[in-house]
């Protein structure tokens, strides 16, 4: 039998490596941006077309490469950052494995122009599927420009797995933000299909956060800083009231490298435990500076996981530093019991001789017996309380006593009816419901008592109604008196654009209005005539949509209807009139699945007479 084990060709090996390193266009963006950082650039441009499927181009003004280095960078395991095994435990650069360029070149058409500052001409190299098509001298500016065209052109199965353009663009923006946050002293820009998404000048950490996420983040940030013998920690955390129900604004950087670490994330969340519910996630951008010999970054192909020599100590430092910052900046309200401020506004600073005593004026013609409404003379307490409990004369509206009595008789008659006799009542007579703690609606039924969760019931009603609107595209809109503008982060703006037609189907009258801005001119009629903050409603709609897709992997329309229902339903604690309760119950039982809320839990509970008797041990 002949030997069957053989070495794979380089082109096949590169495609296998590409499957780990380059999973989507955003993965290639990460590798190219990190290479630009390692080249010492202080200005980096990212140009994207068709969400990275047609073009990804990174232009930097770094050190550039020689002719030999330009050719060698596309070989597997070719790197300028590691010479021996010990160097893996002293890494300060972003890249070190030497696999990224070879992997990208194996699955795309790559063009690279590069020139060192001391050279007169640069080098042009074109590669398709790991094969060099062209290599020649060229006129080029200092630094490197790499264009990745038609990603996955020779692996169509992988290309078919890519999501929609807005979704892939959101992934690209996420990677761009991580790199830009790690290096605030470097200028970045991002263009997509000819539109400028970001233009970030060199700045401080706080300024970079504001430039990336919006001006309203300036008031949300709390500084964190701690220096120890184990790590140095600095950065910013968000105020609790601005926490969101979706992840996405949590950033850890170790030696300026973005990492994902659930253990350290738990340290931050635990510091917020007394200030936030479990399903809310605070903003944080934290930088950990640590001795490279105390960590191992060669753990995962994407280099987003790290092993620490003393993980428990790092956890404790982060938890205590975040908690101290929350307390130091008076996030929790405090009371000063040593100072009484109730009378502070009554103290006068006038000199005693300038104080004028109040004068007394009276009407000499006043007759206390001329009017029944005249105030009486001062009385002692015993006389006052005695008069309060004496029967008083009813001078008007005495007929309402009979109305109240008739209403009570009708209510009692309705309650005493069996289900079989209720059909004999006039159609105008609605069943009476009782509200408990402004949260539950209770009604007597033949077998016992029915209890309905009003919020869960309303969510179910709205969810099915919005799903219907998304299918028939007939959601009615109620025009706002004053249009409202909504400023979104670039990632959320791209998401909103992809959902715009479906959002309009729900009844929103909304349109694009400049960079990362939408104008809301109308809201769904289904929301009623209550005072609604259109801006907050729309922002919560986007947040809820992201949360539904992340947690439940729902379809786009289902996630949108679910988010809209949750954010516009009446909440626990809302008082309802008899008519409102009647309408709510009627609409609930007209639903396809009235017994369950949109999260799959019960919306209706029935307590039978037997269960009640058992409670009383009868």
Automatic annotation (TrEMBL):
Domain DNA mismatch repair protein S5 positions: 209-327
One GO-annotated biological process of the protein: mismatch repair
GO cellular component, one term: mismatch repair complex
Alphabetized Pfam families for the sequence: DNA_mis_repair, HATPase_c_3, MutL_C
PANTHER family reported for this sequence: DNA MISMATCH REPAIR PROTEIN MLH, PMS, MUTL (PTHR10073), DNA MISMATCH REPAIR PROTEIN MLH1 (PTHR10073:SF12)
Transmembrane feature ranges: none
Gene3D superfamilies cross-referenced by the UniProt entry: 3.30.230.10, Histidine kinase-like ATPase, C-terminal domain, MutL, C-terminal domain, dimerisation subdomain, MutL, C-terminal domain, regulatory subdomain
Function: This protein is involved in the repair of mismatches in DNA. It is required for dam-dependent methyl-directed DNA mismatch repair. May act as a 'molecular matchmaker', a protein that promotes the formation of a stable complex between two or more DNA-binding proteins in an ATP-dependent manner without itself being part of a final effector complex.
Matching CDD domains: HATPase_MutL-MLH-PMS-like, MutL_Trans
InterPro entries in the cross-refs: DNA_mismatch_repair_MutL (IPR020667), DNA_mismatch_S5_2-like (IPR013507), HATPase_C_sf (IPR036890), MutL/Mlh/PMS (IPR002099), MutL/Mlh/Pms-like (IPR038973), MutL_C (IPR014790), MutL_C_dimsub (IPR042120), MutL_C_regsub (IPR042121)
A GO molecular-function descriptor: ATP hydrolysis activity
Domain MutL C-terminal dimerisation, first and last residues per copy: 432-576
Name this protein carries in UniProt: DNA mismatch repair protein MutL
UniProt keyword annotations, A-Z: DNA damage, DNA repair
Protein family: Belongs to the DNA mismatch repair MutL/HexB family.
């Amino acid at each position: 039998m002949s030997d069957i084990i053989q070495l794979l060709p380089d082109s096949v090996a590169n495609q296998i490596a590409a499957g780990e390193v380059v999973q989507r266009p955003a993965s290639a963006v990460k590798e190219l941006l990190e290479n630009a950082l390692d080249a010492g650039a202080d200005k980096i441009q990212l140009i994207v077309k068709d969400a990275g499927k047609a073009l990804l181009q990174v232009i930097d003004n770094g050190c550039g490469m020689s002719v030999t280095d330009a050719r060698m960078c596309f070989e597997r395991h070719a790197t300028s950052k590691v010479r021996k095994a010990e160097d893996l435990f002293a890494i300060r650069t972003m890249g070190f494995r030497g696999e990224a360029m070879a992997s990208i070149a194996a699955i795309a058409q790559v063009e690279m122009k590069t020139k060192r500052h001391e050279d007169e001409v640069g080098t042009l190299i074109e590669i398709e599927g790991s094969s060099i098509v062209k290599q020649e001298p060229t006129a080029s500016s200092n630094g490197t420009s790499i264009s990745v065209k038609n990603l996955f052109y020779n692996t169509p199965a992988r290309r078919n797995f890519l999501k929609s353009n807005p979704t892939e663009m959101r992934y690209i923006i996420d990677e761009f933000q991580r790199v830009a946050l790690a290096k605030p002293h470097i200028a970045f820009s991002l263009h997509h299909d000819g539109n400028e998404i970001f233009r970030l000048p060199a700045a401080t950490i706080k300024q970079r956060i504001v430039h990336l996420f919006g001006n309203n983040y300036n008031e949300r940030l709390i500084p964190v800083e701690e220096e120890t013998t184990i790590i140095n920690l600095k950065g910013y955390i968000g105020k609790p009231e601005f926490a969101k129900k979706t992840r996405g604004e949590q950033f850890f950087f170790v030696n300026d490298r973005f990492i994902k670490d659930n253990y350290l994330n738990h340290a931050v969340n635990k510091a917020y435990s007394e200030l936030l519910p479990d399903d809310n996630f605070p903003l944080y951008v934290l930088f950990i500076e640590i001795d490279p010999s105390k960590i191992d970054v060669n753990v995962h192909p994407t280099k987003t996981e790290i092993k620490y020599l003393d993980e428990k100590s790092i956890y404790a430092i982060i938890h205590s530093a975040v908690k101290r910052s929350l307390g130091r900046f008076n996030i929790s309200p405090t009371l000063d019991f040593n100072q009484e401020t109730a009378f502070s506004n009554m103290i006068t600073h006038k000199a005693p001789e300038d104080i004028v005593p109040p004068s007394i004026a009276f009407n000499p013609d006043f007759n206390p017996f001329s009017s029944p409404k005249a105030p009486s003379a001062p009385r002692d307490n015993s006389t006052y309380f005695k008069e309060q409990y004496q029967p008083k004369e009813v001078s008007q509206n005495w007929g309402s006593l009979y109305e109240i009595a008739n209403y009570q008789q009708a209510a009692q008659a309705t309650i005493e009816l069996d289900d079989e006799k209720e059909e004999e009542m006039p159609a105008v007579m609605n069943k009476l419901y009782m509200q408990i703690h402004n949260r539950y609606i209770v009604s007597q039924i033949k077998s016992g008592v029915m209890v309905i969760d009003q919020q869960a019931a309303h969510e179910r009603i709205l969810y099915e109604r919005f799903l219907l609107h998304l299918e028939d595209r007939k959601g009615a809109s109620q025009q706002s008196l004053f249009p409202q503008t909504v400023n979104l982060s670039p990632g959320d703006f791209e998401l909103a654009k992809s959902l715009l037609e479906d959002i309009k189907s729900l009844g929103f009258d909304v349109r694009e209005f400049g960079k990362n801005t939408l104008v809301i001119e109308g809201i769904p009629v289904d929301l009623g005539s209550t005072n609604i903050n259109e801006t907050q409603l729309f922002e919560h709609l986007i947040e809820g949509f992201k949360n539904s897709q992340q947690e439940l992997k729902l379809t786009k329309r289902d996630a949108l209807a679910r988010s809209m229902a949750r954010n516009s339903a009446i909440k626990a604690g809302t008082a309802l009139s008899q008519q409102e309760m009647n309408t709510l119950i009627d609409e609930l039982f007209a639903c396809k699945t009235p017994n369950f809320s949109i999260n799959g839990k019960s919306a209706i509970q029935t307590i039978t007479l037997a269960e009640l008797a058992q409670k009383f041990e009868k």
